Amino acid sequence: MATEISYEEALKLFRGWKDRSCRVLIGFNSPAAFQGQFDGQIMVVDEGELVVESFGSKTNLNLSIQGCKFILPDVMGDGDAFADTELSLLLCFPNEVTCSIIAFSIPN
Fold first, then answer.
1. % of the chain at pLDDT higher than 90
2. d(Cα 3, Cα 75) in Å, to the nearest integer?
3. Is the confidence at residue 14, as pLDDT, over 90?
4. What is the largest CA-CA distance in the chain?
5. Is 60 helix (H, G, I), strand (E, B) or coil?
C-alpha cells in the first residue's frame, strides 16, 4: 500500500539524500507536459525548492515542491532490480503532473 508522507518528512528525506551525495534519477511521464528523465545529485533543498544538478554537464533541474504531495509507492516485483536503490518517491505537483524520484544507495 502506498503511503503519503508530509512535506517536512519529504524535506528530511531530500536533505538526507543530499548529505549522502546519493545519485537520484527523476522520471517524468506526463503526456501534456514533458516525458523524460534527469539523472544527477541533489544540490539544494530549500523551503519550496529542490535543485538537482546533472553529472558532467552542470545542468540544473529546479523543482518547485511547495504544495506537492509526496507518496512512497509500493515497490513490488523483482527485488534485485531495486537492490542498489535506497528509496523511491512519487512527487505529485498541484497541477496533477507527477514524477518519480529514485535515490541510489551507492554514493557517486
1. 44
2. 11
3. yes
4. 38
5. strand
Domain ranges of the chain: 3-104
Place of cell 503526456: 31
What fold is seen in the domain 3-104?
PH-domain like (2.30.29)
Rounded to whole angstroms, the Cα distance separating 51 from 63 reads 6
pLDDT, mean of residues 4-26: 92
Work out the angle at residue 3's Cα, subtended by the Cα atoms of residues 53 and 28, and round it to the nearest 5 degrees: 35
Q: How would residue 6 be classed by pLDDT, with cut points 50, 70 and 90?
A: very high
CA dist 26 to 31, 46, 71, Å?
16, 18, 14
Asked whether 44 and 53 are in contact (CB, 8 A), the reply is no
